[in-house]
Amino acid sequence: MTQKILFRADASADIGAGHVMRCLTLANTLKANGYRCVFAARFMLESLGRLIEDAGHILVRLDGGSENVTDGEPVLSHAGWLGVAQETDADQCLLLSRSGQWSWIVVDHYAIDFRWEKRLRPFCDRLMVIDDLGDRVHDCDLLLDQNLGTDEQKYAGKVPANCRLLLGPGYALLRPEFAELRHYSLARRRTPQLQQLLITMGGVDRNNVTSDILEALKRSPLSPSCQITVVMSSQSQWLRGVRNLARSMPWPAKVRVDVTDMALLMADSDLAIGAAGGSAWERCCLGLPSLTVILADNQRQSAHALSSRKAVIALDPNGPESLAESLPKALSALIGDGLEAMVERVSAVGIDGLGAVKVASEMAGVPPAR
């Protein structure tokens, strides 16, 4: 009998795309191992929905999303992201369980805690949580936190005693092409020169940081021979404006939309200016130096951990300096020997790109809870 796995994750302008993308990476690995994967989502970017279905998974869209969220105590800091009360969401997911027991339920959602998980427990053999925050209690068998600097103390008293913790970027859920291109990417950085600059703010650039970066670059000391590639989503409301801005840049700048070869783009780039979310681990895997822009509070831990190792330069648009001030300074520091030194440090983070395979192996070793 085919084993079934239910993923519960959302993607929107507020939530971003990262939760669904890392779940999709894991689902693709599990599908290759014979599992049938179902995604339950209330909020879903259309481009991501197509990716899920094109990969051969089932996408179920949950109803609602406009009611006042009233879960009672404890009130979660991201409760509004769920769109409904946890009890309502759990009851809707229970309806998906009528066809039989789930081998696993995988939850990647900051608005879900032990209350939702306990309600679904009887309908799954095992339950896994993917988290970054460590700010709430879970009832799970396996917990993954792929952030650098995370230790067991972060989840002390927040998971059952027998919960297995998978901690650190060695478990980062990266698509297989990153591991495949790692050797090529590292080899071409032996004598790094800044000729190809990549700008990517992730699947959702809610605050149009891409435009701020392009404006700041106009005051930066890039070589006249440098070429810029900007990656955008077709659903971005800023796409037209970014295209117009790219045409006004002092260097050749092209805008690529809904790319399917991101790993190769990164491997062929000499420096990236990118969001501090899950794509930071992609850049580390390929040894790609980067200016890492903190777009959300949940990105601070990893960005600061990488910055403390001098593996990235972290930029905070909400910090004391604007991007117009901090970005030109950061680029000036990298020109010359600074780029080569960063290549060595980012490569030393040691992300091999096989995190999804490792997590799938760990899941196979967890016995049923009952």
TrEMBL record:
Coiled coil: none annotated. Transmembrane segments: none annotated. It is an enzyme of class 3 (hydrolase). Residues 228-335 form the Glycosyl transferase family 28 C-terminal domain. The active site is at residue 19. It comes from the Bacteria. Keywords: Hydrolase. InterPro entries: Glyco_trans_28_C, PseG. This is UDP-2,4-diacetamido-2,4, 6-trideoxy-beta-L-altropyranose hydrolase. It comes from Rhizobium anhuiense.
